[in-house]
Write a structure and sequence with these properties.
The protein is an alpha+beta fold. The chain is built from 1 helix and 4 strands; from the N terminus they run αββββ. It has one domain (14-129). It is rod-shaped and about 100 Å long. The termini are far apart.
Amino acid sequence: MRRSKVKGSVGFTLLEVMIAMAIIAIVLTAVLGSQSQSVSFANEAKFYTTASLLAQSKMAEWDVMPEEELISDSGDFGEDFPGYSWHVSVSNVILDMPGKVPDYLKRVDVQVSWGDEGIYQYRVSAFRFLPERQ
């Protein structure tokens, strides 16, 4: 008995396989790109959450500091927060008063950085009123 093959029912052609592989490659590229972006956003969110709390704690330290110790400084947060560093800048506030710079108002800027060369940075500023001495 002889079997006859029906034309077109044998399998996939090379062209169909190549088109399917191209579609899979495009879809996988898009999926992996969005996954990478998702990880980046998660790292950024983690930094801003942690940095805001660290900046708030550093600002609280400067709020209770005596007037004589209000100087610019920098450092890191130790082993508890590896890779995080801080810089505090203290400066006089210049008001629109000709010839007079008040020494009773200070601006305190806190910058928290993380990553190689400070890729991520968080900044917060506050003003501190120092009562005049009598």
